[in-house]
Write a sequence for this structure.
């Protein structure tokens, strides 16, 4: 057998057929050519999540964030406008931000001292008249991301001047984000700093897991059920919906069997939290779906995910209760990603309750979290295998076929109240195939996947 390593174009050409067959080439999880194309084609084209407005609550607040590997300053300017500015001095390209966050009226470059207002406007430079007298200052402000939009306090940006509006980009996923983040949006806020840590795995592995890899929970995370960290029985938890939105975005919902079920509702949030949820903010069918939902996990293509789940970091001390976190799978190389994890809570809760939510996330989904320890080891080995000579020369294809016609028990739900293509139960890998359809389209400038 002659070893065969397809080039990038051959690899991409093979993707639509492979997806129809429920196959994904292992190589995409550790390959320099694929990775470079992702940075230059995909991350410059998509809408990317940067942070939550509560992180920049006051004029002058800023945080340093990334689109692909490129640094951007997310700042609330002195007039209160949220801006996303390329963190690069217009003189020689030096990075301006030396801190991950802060509050400032101006950004001054450490090299020659060019100075910009927090709106991005170029203000001045040392010995301006002698050095630059006559220069048109209006042409030398910091470069803004072409598009910035907010959705229920979540800040997204796109580097593509031709990008569709965020709502169009989200497609059917917008209906579900309204349901998840629109219940009490003005009270939502980030607790503490986002956790950040680096692992030797490809960014897509995290994104596709949160798109709805519920199947792994009953096996890899079995110990969490054994210690009582989760109330919902493991296999019961697979009863729910997989929702495929506009190619790339996916949502997975574990559902209570009916509205009278005594188990967790509204993702296990306590009654005083639920009392603040406002049904008038959404359609009745959205509110009813939220009420019956026990777990929600999903991915907005390419690398933003979220998790709403009732659980406990220490069930001997406190019973499972609702928690929420936001995720970014930050690319840092073909086989390296930085995980970002934000803990969300509500402003109206006491400091003790907010702290409890924070500790629950810390003990489960964080660098020190038990779920995280379980997940990241196999994720790292996927990248190792993807880069192996044997896998590359055999063009190893991996199985993503659960839920294809004739495989497994998942079926399309015809009378679902929300948009998108919906399957029941969650024994289904169409959410991952949907993610890779979005990936193929972004990598091929809208190719038909
Ligand atoms: Fe920024 Fe020169 S590189 S002032
Ligand atoms: Fe997991």
């Amino acid at each position: 057998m002659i070893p065969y390593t397809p080039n990038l174009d051959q690899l991409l050409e093979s993707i639509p057929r492979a997806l129809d067959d429920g196959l994904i080439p292992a190589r995409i999880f550790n390959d320099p050519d694929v990775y470079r194309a992702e940075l230059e084609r995909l991350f410059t084209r998509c809408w990317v999540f940067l942070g939550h407005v509560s992180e920049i609550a006051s004029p002058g607040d800023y945080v340093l964030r990334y689109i692909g590997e490129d640094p951007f300053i997310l700042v609330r300017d002195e007039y209160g406008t949220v801006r996303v500015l390329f963190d690069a001095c217009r003189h020689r390209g030096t990075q301006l931000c030396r801190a991950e966050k802060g509050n400032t009226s101006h950004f001054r470059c450490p090299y020659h001292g060019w100075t910009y207002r927090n709106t991005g406007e170029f203000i001045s430079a040392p010995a301006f008249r002698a050095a630059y007298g006559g220069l048109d200052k209006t042409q030398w402000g910091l470069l803004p991301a072409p598009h910035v939009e907010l959705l229920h306090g979540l800040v997204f940006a796109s580097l593509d001047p031709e990008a569709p509006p965020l709502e169009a980009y989200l497609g059917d996923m917008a209906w579900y984000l309204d349901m998840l983040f629109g219940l009490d949006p003005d009270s939502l806020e980030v607790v503490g700093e986002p956790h950040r840590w680096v692992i030797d795995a490809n960014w897509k592995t995290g994104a596709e897991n949160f798109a709805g890899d519920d199947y792994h929970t009953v096996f890899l995370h079995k110990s969490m059920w054994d210690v009582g960290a989760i109330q919902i029985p493991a296999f019961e938890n697979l009863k729910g919906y997989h929702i495929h939105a506009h190619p790339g975005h996916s949502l997975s919902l574990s559902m209570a069997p009916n509205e009278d079920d005594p188990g967790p509702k509204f993702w296990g949030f306590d009654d005083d939290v639920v009392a603040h949820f406002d049904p008038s903010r959404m359609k009745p069918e959205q509110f009813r779906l939220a009420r019956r939902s026990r777990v929600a996990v999903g991915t907005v293509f390419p690398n933003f995910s979220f998790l709403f789940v009732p659980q406990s970091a220490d069930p001997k001390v406190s019973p499972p209760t609702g928690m929420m976190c936001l995720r970014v799978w930050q690319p840092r190389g073909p086989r390296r990603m930085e995980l970002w994890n934000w803990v969300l809570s509500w402003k109206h809760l006491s400091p003790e309750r907010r702290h409890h939510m924070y500790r629950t996330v810390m003990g489960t989904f964080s660098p020190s979290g038990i779920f995280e320890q379980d997940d990241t080891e196999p994720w790292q080995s996927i990248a190792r295998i993807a880069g192996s000579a044997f896998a590359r020369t055999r063009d190893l294809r991996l199985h993503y076929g659960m839920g294809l016609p004739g495989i497994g028990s998942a079926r399309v739900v015809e009378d679902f109240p929300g948009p998108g293509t919906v399957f029941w139960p969650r024994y289904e890998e169409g959410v991952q195939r949907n993610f890779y359809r979005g990936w193929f389209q972004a990598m091929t400038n809208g190719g038909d996947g």
